[in-house]
Amino acid sequence: MINEINHFHLFSGSGIGAAGMQDAKPEIPGLRGRMVCSGGIDVDAAGAADFFRFTGVRCTVRDLFSRNQYIAFHGHEPPASWVEATPADIREAAGGRRPHILFLSAPCKGFSGLLSHSRSLTAKYQALNELTLRGIWLTLEAWKEDPVEVILFENVPRIASRGRHFLDQIVQLLRHYGYVVRETAHDCGELGGLAQSRKRFLLIARHAEKVPAFIYEPPKRPLRAVGEILGRMHLPGDLRAGPMHRIPNLSWKTWVRLAFVEAGSDWRSLNRLAVQDGYLQDYLLVPEMHRGALGVHGMQDSAGVIAGRSYPLNGAFSVADPRFDPSAAWKDGQAYGVRRWDASTGAIAGQQGPGQGAYSVADPRHHGPAKHSNEFRIVRYDAAARAVTGAHGTGQCVADPRGFGEDTHKNVFRVVSWEGTAGTVSGGHGPSSGGQAVADPRGGPDANKLHGKFHTAAWDEHSHAVIAGYANGAFAVADPRPGLARERGDHYLTAGHYGVAAWDKHIGAVSASACHDNGAWSVADPRALPAANDKLVCRITAEDGTWHRPFTTLELAALQSLYDPDDYTEAEEHGAPFQMEGSSDSAHRERIGNAVPRKAAKAMAEEIGRAILLSRAGESFQLSSTPIWVRPIATALAVRGGETP
Description:
About 20% of the residues lie in helices and about 15% in strands. By secondary structure, the protein is an alpha/beta fold. The longest helix has 20 residues, at about 125-140.
């Protein structure tokens, strides 16, 4: 036999919880229940459209404020067409049918820890909080002649402290109408087997006469890994999955912060960065050009093969040095938290930017292997070298522990002390060819009297007199002649020492001994990094080799079990991807964050429906392997007469 169990939703939002209840299939021996949604009511028109999209049942758009609450919340009188909701409006929204299960998820912003305590006490948020009590009163009055069997009141855990005075009034009101009431808490992730931990407050009211049977707690399931869900989806930004899968535009500074947060950690990872004058001391961010370009190896890793053309822009030739002092400049909450690929997420709140919580994931997926794995490899002195290839720069470096021998020059860049003797003056008399510099200790108060000291004469003027006084000038002249005026034989005519090539020019052949001071081996790069507040989508490879990025809106829907990648694969291929009402990502995220996860709602509805079926069959007891739906400090829901044992 099949029995219908009606459920109605107050403050229904997008109807995700209602859709989960529709999925439930409660059953006892000889009797099967069919869950039927009789409607919902909410002030948000977009949420009401989603309700119809997910359940196929109309949702009434109606403001449930009293007049005084409306004025306190909005700060002005309601429009002339506004009418205060009554119990009759609730009955009409339910299609004239009495529900067997009433589910309320009242606005929780005033109770949430994301709102400061001082703001939660303002008239605006107190009016919002009063909707909890008003919603319960409206529904009790709507069916006072034939009460609803079970009432579920769901909210954030902090309502137990911030909303204590409201809860006390709600409990007394329910008991007055004949309900046995218990306050409990649960983790939606464990009830639905989700990839997130979402702890919520739940008040359960069972009408003592209509439902004498126990309501058992749904079985708990282990939390799943984030990657178990996201790994079945398209890569973020792939619009085959629809516009809800686009990557959010974040400010450049937010992307950089995310990249430095360790996977599985949060903003506290940033404390270990050394910051001086607002800049990172140990890292430099530059644009990436090729696969593996500007790569950074871990301190314990070895570099790959060195290719014939080995530049910082075409290989991983840098190392992430962990040696630095921590900085304790961050004091906010769980901002910029990055979840590991194989871990579960936390609760998804109505507001979830990367700066407000752990809403990012270290994504290990990539588009292919690194280009070269042995570039710039340094061979130990006591180890064998790699194979010698035609590209002479491949793995041909060695860590040579030997010092300078007897046959090497010792006076390169040497500075001779004032009282010592200089070395032999050779034909090449630059500072790099011998001890041609002297540490002159002379100076003092008389030095200012020497007016010619360090004087540089203009090209078209005569020089000052060269006198015998110490440290005197007139030794330099400003030469306006360009390098093209030099003659053959000049050492700097073609070598290009310290040369910088223009961005749109080519450079000459790279010699085996190429270094910055013996050729034009530098380039004037006109590209600039984005400004701190520039909004963009970028990919920064973190030190763990993954991409630390925020979840897409579609991924948040999947974590809430609203969207199943396997169910929509074929639809996406035919151009009909998953979509919610409207085009605003922020509005979608708020409605998803406020929702009861679909699979968690299904688990709750099956247990409640089973208790209702037992009552209809005249049974008041059933053996179950799961505990009665109470916490350790609470008592059973099946206590008769509302009395605590």
